[in-house]
Amino acid sequence: MSKTRRNLILMFLALGQGAVYFLPYIRNVYYTPMLEIMNVTNAQFGSLVSFFAIGCMILYIPGGIITDRWNYKKCITYSLFATSFLVASFAFFLNFAYARIVFFLMALTTTFVFWTATLKAVRVIGKSDEQGRTFGFYYSVQGLLSILVQSGYLFMFNRFADPATGLKFVLIANAVTTFAAGIGAHFLLEEPSQETSMASTGGFDFKSIGAVIRNPLTWIIAILVFCAYGTYSNSYYFTVFLTSQRGLDPKIGAQLSLIRVTYMMCIASYIGGNLADRIGSTSKMYTISATIAAISGFAFVGMMNSDVSAMALGVLSILPSAFMLLVYGIISSLYEEYSYPVRATGTAIGIVSILGYTPDLIFGPLLGGWIDTQGAAGYTTIFTFFAILCLVGAGAAFVGKALNSKAKSSGNSAGELKAS
């Protein structure tokens, strides 16, 4: 496969990845209009996201298993087309009753097989010695395309005086974007080889699935996802602290939030992928990056209540998220580094995601509860917790590299699936 074709496929996959999760996380931009249009309370609107998140947790593992058993190209394209249909239908039935149905079904069309199939496809597309660059490029392009596409959506929304009409056209545009990504994936993705599927074994390989679960490196990767995702996805608490406790202009705070997550996703993922391949180990890259993130996090805690200006603290607050984003996008390259069989990649990703993305379920109540019970001191607890998360991630990556090196020195593969 030529480099141009490979990059084009990654671009369509990145476009689809960003598009399918637009509606489940529509609250990030269109929270108030959605409340008014559907005439619901904050709790009701929040329940939609909770239903989606719970559905995702339930479907991660079976979705990964099916991805390995079935054609991942079809998993991707069918999921994109189904998601496009759901979003388009919701544009014409903007009410809470139908929203509950759509958000439930979205867990099936976005997470069930699409999530694991897409990451598996990215692994297959990339060369074994360029996994860091491949995943880094993928996440970087995803971030860039999300900025461009969602800026277009927002421009369209603002052109209409009636929010309901504006949101309707935004949803239709998202449906078209998702469908276009499906078309691109259908025509550009090659048919999977037999070596990349459990179907090549002649049946459903439960022993391999059990071996993935028993492999300690599966849980190491899960911890790495948990720490990186938990830190960067909740980094908006820095902005909340700076604006509510240190008097930072909310407009500047919003810009810092964009830089901290959205822009850094584009920049850090690409840099992290290239550095990991140069170093020769994503595990080592993670250890270094997470350690720096922890140091910058503890530095923020030490200065957050000092005479240091709010703006200087705002700049410092970018670092923990930025250094964790350096490695978040390339964690999936560890399946290659640890020599997991390609045919079991989907299963491994599904199992890893169960633990790795639990911050979506538990961090909101946990972190918010600290602020409610401790007041301003709750922010110190939160940022200390973030720094500790980074240290835990650094330690886990160090252990993962040690286990991998030990296995290789004895002539084995750390990710080898050994039946009991």
Q: Tell me the fraction of residues in β-strands, as a range.
A: under 5%
- Anisotropy-based shape: globular
Helix content: over 70%
Radius of gyration: 21 Å
Ranges where pLDDT stays below 50 over 5 or more residues in a row are 200-204
Which oligomeric state applies?
A: single chain
- Count of helices? 18
Major sheet attributes: none
Query: Structural class of the secondary elements?
Result: mainly alpha
Kindly report how far apart the N and C termini lie.
38 Å
Number of strands: 0
Instruction: Give the rounded overall mean pLDDT.
Output: 89
Q: What's the SSE pattern? A: HHHHHHHHHHHHHHHHHH
How would you characterize this protein structure?
- It is a single chain.
- This protein is mostly helical.
- Residues 200-204 have low confidence and may be disordered.
- The chain contains 18 helices and no strands.
Q: What is this structure's SSE topology?
A:
Layout: H1 3-20, H2 27-38, H3 42-69, H4 72-92, H5 96-125, H6 131-158, H7 163-188, H8 206-214, H9 216-232, H10 236-245, H11 250-279, H12 282-303, H13 310-316, H14 318-328, H15 334-337, H16 345-356, H17 359-374, H18 377-409
Helix pairs in contact: 1-5, 1-6, 1-7, 3-5, 3-16, 4-5, 4-7, 5-16, 6-7, 6-11, 9-14, 9-16, 9-18, 10-11, 11-12, 11-14, 12-14, 12-18, 17-18
Quick structural gist:
The chain is an all-alpha fold and 420 residues long. It is 80% helix and 0% strand. The protein is globular.
